[in-house]
Design brief:
This protein is mainly β. It has strands spanning about 15-20, 25-30, 35-40, 50-55. It has one domain.
């Protein structure tokens, strides 16, 4: 399994999905379950919360 260096400094679980060609969506523990976050996949930048109290990211088929 390969690893991707992202701008996220916290541990990202193994259920991250691509949001687009340059960003990932992943979950982190929140106050009421998991929160969804997006992070640039190329290293620089900062993580940004997308949604609170979510379950997991999903990729439209």
């Amino acid at each position: 399994m390969s690893q991707l260096a992202t701008a996220e400094q916290r541990n990202i679980d193994d259920h991250a999905v691509w949001a687009d060609d340059s960003a990932l969506v992943h979950t982190l523990p929140g106050d009421y379950g998991s929160d969804l976050w997006t992070v640039p996949a190329d290293g620089p930048g900062a993580a940004r919360r997308l949604m609170t109290s979510a379950v997991a990211p999903a990729c439209p088929g």
